[in-house]
Amino acid sequence: MRKPSSLFKRRGSMLLALVLISVATAMLIWWLPWRAPRAVGVATAMLIWWLPWRAPRAVEDFPLALLDGREAKLSDFRGRPLLVNFWATSCAPCVEELPALLALHAEFAPQRVAVLAIAMPYDPPLHVAQFAEQHHLPYPVALDVRADAVRAFGGVPYIPATFLLDRSGRIVYSHAGLLDAARLRQAIELELARS
């Protein structure tokens, strides 16, 4: 039979180890978002990377204020695949991926694949208009001043964020971070083949 003091020491050691692990975990949770946003972004992007393997999710309809002054709704794009790109003029990766988006638009527009760029709510409309004019964006650009689009797509915590919607308005592909054009091209081709 064990001595009572050794039993208490063993339980005390286990309790101390549990407390230390809990404190270390809490500190890591507190530290990562504020001190290492890139690490959190990478982890989230990797998690979002798995979204194409889940069942497609429908996106709620929402109003769009287009740069050309027209009002539209997401449902106006139903009936054809839609590539939605959330971006901001101050986002370096968003600007970096622009040539790939333009190339995808040029390649798939004849096959009725629509592209819609949605500026983040914090991006000043004047900056968005100047950027779109300067870069000659051939597809619609929407302002999301009230964050309706951001909410409909589940929050969009990181940009650039790209979503491919099927003809019914369901998300069939998503990617957070710099665009993987080859992978997106495959997803578009797969969606076109489903028709």
Q: What would you say this structure looks like, in words?
A:
This protein has 195 residues and is α+β, with helices and mostly antiparallel strands. It folds into two domains: 4-35; 56-193, Glutaredoxin (3-Layer(aba) Sandwich), CATH 3.40.30.10. It has helices at 4-35, 37-49, 92-96, 98-108, 125-134, 148-152, 181-193, and strands spanning 57-58, 63-66, 71-73, 82-87, 114-119, 141-143, 161-165, 170-176. Strands 1-8-7-4-5-6-2-3 form an eight-stranded mixed beta sheet. Mean pLDDT is 82; it is low at 34-40 and 45-53.
Briefly characterize the structure:
Helix content is 46%, strand content 18%. With 195 residues, it is of the alpha+beta class.
Major beta sheet summary: 8 strands, mixed
Can you tell me the residue ranges where pLDDT is under 50 for at least 5 consecutive residues? 34-40, 45-53
**Portion in strands:** 15-25%
Can you give the helix content as a percent range? Answer: 40-55%
Q: How large is the radius of gyration?
A: 23 Å
CATH architecture group name of the largest domain: 3-Layer(aba) Sandwich
**H/E element string?**
HHEEEEHHEHEHEEH
State the end-to-end distance. 75 Å
Given the helix and strand composition, which structural class is it?
alpha+beta
Question: Can you tell me the overall shape?
Answer: elongated
**Total number of helices:** 7
Give the mean pLDDT: 82
Integer tally of domains: 2
* Strand runs, count: 8
How are strands sequenced across the largest beta sheet? 1-8-7-4-5-6-2-3
Looking at the structure, the CATH topology of the largest domain is Glutaredoxin
CATH top level label of the largest domain: Alpha Beta
Q: What's the CATH superfamily of the largest domain, by name? A: Glutaredoxin
